[in-house]
Amino acid sequence: MRRSIAPAELIDGLLAGNRLALARAISRVENEDDGARVILDGVFAQTGRGHLIGVTGAPGTGKSTLVNALARAFRGQGETVAILAVDPTSPFTGGALLGDRVRMTQLSGDPGVFIRSMATRGHLGGLAAASVDVLQLLDSAGFDRILIETVGVGQAEVEIAATAHTTLVVEAPGLGDEVQAIKAGVLEIADIFVVNKADRPGVERTVTALEMMLEQRRGGVRSMRHHGQVMSVALPPTTTAAQEWTIPVLKTVAVEAGGMAKGVDALRQAIEGHRSWLVEGDGMALREESRIARTLETLIQTALSRRMQATLPAEQIAAFIGAVRRRELSPHAAADAVVRQLTG
Amino acid sequence: MRRSIAPAELIDGLLAGNRLALARAISRVENEDDGARVILDGVFAQTGRGHLIGVTGAPGTGKSTLVNALARAFRGQGETVAILAVDPTSPFTGGALLGDRVRMTQLSGDPGVFIRSMATRGHLGGLAAASVDVLQLLDSAGFDRILIETVGVGQAEVEIAATAHTTLVVEAPGLGDEVQAIKAGVLEIADIFVVNKADRPGVERTVTALEMMLEQRRGGVRSMRHHGQVMSVALPPTTTAAQEWTIPVLKTVAVEAGGMAKGVDALRQAIEGHRSWLVEGDGMALREESRIARTLETLIQTALSRRMQATLPAEQIAAFIGAVRRRELSPHAAADAVVRQLTG
After folding, report:
1. A343 to B339: CB separation less than 8 angstroms, yes or no
2. Which domains can be identified in chain B, with CATH numbers?
3. Coil, strand or helix at A331
């Protein structure tokens, strides 16, 4: 029988950079194990050192290959890398597992790289909350760069990618619809645009379309990210004493290990450039604030929903649903009754 | 100065099918006007008659054109139609407004059709809650068919589409990535698959891919929709005394008014067939239950979040964020403190 490891032991292992301890701590978070909270609170003071890099974009843009290539580029600089792939694929298709296996063969054997996939289990809020916790564990384990890759361009995937310090939005030529990225509101979260598969026809059209959008935006509405309201707290506007960040549009041809990649090292340098810009100005402090506000919002929602499950017996919820179905009670009146009961 | 209309007057107008009253009631919901709640509760007893049809799919599949063509097909049967286009496009691009204008020129002048677009305002939960309310208003106004079109294939868009009685998932050949639909978990919510733009090359490949997926699914995991847990209430499994619903894969070539459409009337018949199947078996009652559970979940979350904003002053939230940023308080500890304060 496998001995259950005490949280304190896992905390020590995590902070010492032990990979087995890290993997076990992540599993506890994913399983919503009681010990998870102790571990998270125990390592929290040691977080905030890793550079969180979000990578999002439509399926078919070659995101995973690009993330692997970037990981190798960072390793080439002697830096350690963690990759967290957040996959809203249904459990049915098993996409996350498959992705893990492909990656393992490419980057395995390198102790400076840690890879983990998380798949949704039917509840997206749960995935967002769990990914926040797992990022904290990866940060506490001392990785220099932490890449968060999300599959898809929906609002929720975008929100996960937006909890990073530096967010990459990946496009590719000839995906049939130039405006895919814009549609899902990813324009507002991009610090760097990457046009991957840049050896394909139509690459200049895609680059031009992105540059025109950025041009238009500079003239008009400014980034929601820096001026947005999170949790009803108006974040201070970015002071522009330091130079403004100019969002670059970079071309890459990412390939698996052994192939001839193009533009990946330039991308790595742009990512590092963005971090320097954040650290030199007040960008990092502001971004940390908005990251924390988003994190708190996610955790509060999860905590409230757990409390609701604990406070209200299933029969009572079923009774509310029945009353609404018979049109005896309006949905708003039912929701109010639940909230009153919950908040005493 | 325009006189503000009393809620009671709007309720009477709504139930009489007055379009101006409907448009004004929707605006009140969108503006979170105090009168909105009175109107919603006032009409609720008259809802539950319209057939809610969700339409979702990736950008580029021709969803909007298909929805317009379907609206004309229903009108051809003498039925009234409302279209609600829910667009998570950022306010920056103004996609929703543009879509409205294109539609107006196609279907305008027909008093049996009502069209409305809703765009997100930076907060997706808010959009889901508002769309639930607007659907209720459209239902109370007596439309036979209510089409809800969502842009994008993210989890949140899927959830909005899944609040329908009958859900269509639209694909198109040659979008570069056959698995787009599967990736976002839309397989589980489809009652009918539509391969639109079926005059394009590769259509049979797309149809075959979908049919293979459906075949695989029949052998394995069953629909999450019917067996899922919503709000911690285990919904009863679909009793299969009646025949099971076999998800069809239909080909269409939807065009704007005046063009030569193909397969749209067959699709209309399949939609009606699905409704008959729901009504004849116990499907409709089960789906209504899961619809209401989802609706309550959305409204409860919104109500809790409003209560949080009312209970906690912005300075206090800012203080929590600051304490987390200085690593004095862990995010979970801060979230717990907020929840304790909120729930007394």
Report:
1. no
2. 1-46 (no CATH), 47-283 (3.40.50.300), 312-343 (no CATH)
3. helix
